[in-house]
Specification:
The protein has helices at 2-9, 25-38; strands at residues 48-55, 66-71, 74-80, 86-87, 90-91, 94-101, 108-114, 118-119, 123-124, 137-143, 156-163, 177-180, 186-193, 197-202, 208-212, 219-221. By secondary structure, the protein is mainly beta. The two termini are 40 Å apart.
């Protein structure tokens, strides 16, 4: 019974000797950071406003980009760009890292020295290059980030088709495949059938999914995954 189980566990003091696996650190930190950000608790900002404009070509604004100021690996403040591509995060005087991310674009990271209110030079993001698949298939992709929020090259991902969409006459290869993120942090898997269900891994993490591919188009920004490294 539940009562018997609770009595057997007691205060939990007998569990104190369970070892911690250091390989879990990054994943736990990432999950905590996501939860804090989602709750709106991350970052307290500061006295000085930094006005940041984000564009795709020097003049065309990118709305809904995330503009974040970090002190080391600690998030100080984050804001989202408006329809004009402008965000206004705040911080106190000091030396920071400014990071800008937007769906479909390679991220930007640069040193930021703050002495007062300032307008940061316009930031131009480069569109992510994803090789489209043939009709009836999609290329699934992610942009990979490290624990400090910067893009991360050299991370190995795995993908396996575990179920098709029920298309008659189609035989699908369910071999587990691997791919490595490039210098832009992008990792791609081509040839995923429309509507197929896939399981995915990042590094040594457990499989995630299944995720279902779209039933149209040639590229697919895949569901978020978490893994180590």
């Amino acid at each position: 019974t539940q009562a018997a189980a609770a009595a057997a566990i007691g205060t939990g003091s007998g569990l104190s000797a369970i070892p911690w696996n250091a390989a879990w650190d990054a994943e736990v930190q990432s999950e905590c950071a996501d939860a804090i950000a989602e709750a709106g608790l991350a970052g307290t900002g500061g006295a000085y406003t930094q006005t940041v404009t984000v564009t795709s070509d020097g003049s065309t604004p990118i709305p809904n980009a995330t503009v974040a100021i970090y002190s080391g690996s600690t998030l100080v403040d984050t804001k989202t760009t408006n329809s004009s591509g402008i965000a206004t995060p705040t911080c106190d005087a000091g030396s920071y890292t400014l990071r800008v991310t937007a769906s479909g674009y390679a991220s930007h990271s640069a040193a930021l020295t703050v002495t007062g209110d300032a307008t940061v030079a316009t930031i131009t993001l480069s569109a992510i290059s994803v090789t489209p698949s043939a009709a009836g298939f999609v290329t699934g992709y992610w942009t990979c980030y490290g624990t400090a929020g910067a893009i991360e090259a050299g991370t190995t991902h795995y993908l396996q088709v575990v179920e098709g969409a029920g298309t008659t006459g189609l035989s699908i290869d369910g071999t587990r495949r691997s791919a490595v993120s490039g210098v832009d942090g992008v990792v791609q898997f081509a040839g995923i059938p429309w509507g197929a269900s896939v399981r995915v891994w990042r590094g040594t993490a457990k499989p995630m999914g299944p995720f279902v591919a779209p039933t149209s188009g040639t590229t697919w920004a895949m569901d978020e995954v978490v893994g180590t490294p």
